[in-house]
Design a protein that fits this description.
single chain; mainly alpha; 14 helices
Length: 325
Amino acid sequence: MTRLLSFQAAARQYSEQIASQFASLAAAGDRLRAMQQDFVKSAAPSLAALVQRRDGLAEQMRQAARIALPLPRYDFGADLGRVLDANRQQWVSNIRRLVEFVTQLIPDNLRGLQAEKLVEVFKVNVEDGTSLAWAPRTSIVEQLIEVPDMEARGVILVTHASEIADDIDASLAVVALPEHQDLKSMLLEATAAIRAGLYRPAQAAACAVFDTVVNEHMLKHLAYTGRKTKDKTRNHFRPIEVSEWDDASFAEVGLVLVGAGISTAFQHWDRGIGQASFNRNGSTHQVDDGSYSSAHAVRAALIAHATLRWLDEALAAEQDEGEAA
């Protein structure tokens, strides 16, 4: 697609176009039937003349084949109209379900944003090593994508830290699989620490959850093979770069909005010249080298929660499919 529209607007536009297309196709069926009838009439004199000829049987068969083969075998115009009319409701329903499915790929706190703002979310994820999926609330997301740099975004994150912690808690309520409950509890402790102003303990706890989700559970779930499976797992959520946004598929958009910051957060950390963004390696191995901050604590909680929720929903969907099979 040359340009991604607002997904809600796209869904509405798609439904309207479907109804219009069915009317056009039905009319096309009538025109096709009329063309076929004219073609049969024009061929009829040649066929009649052939019957009256006294040539040998073999020659008559050859000439009959030359005339008869191009004639339509069925009344395609009538068939097309009947198929479209009989299945109109089902086709429209199926396409609407497809649009709803595509819309579900976009986290609910981001669905009201225009494409120009969604690409800004993508940029923030990549630059900050975080995720704005499912939390924070839309009004805070809009503030974050309006300011020019990571430092300004950090001010917003700390200013609204308690609200963001509440949004993360609300989002974590959907994490339901038993094997994820310890990780969920640890993140809830991290958000409680954020509300209490205990940013370093919050960052440490969130970073530990993030590391476990990505390097253990997600690694197993995505099951990449060959060399550098950890890198492949982290890059799974960054199938495109920001410059390729206009040509992205819906699935690619869904992935980068959730996890484009994963590969950033796992970038190499060299002592004294570490990353300005939230970084798992610095937070784990270089805790006294500027890797901790109040803003990074919020960034860590956001991306840890987003990766855990994505994994939980993916595994739950697989289990549902298995039970339905």
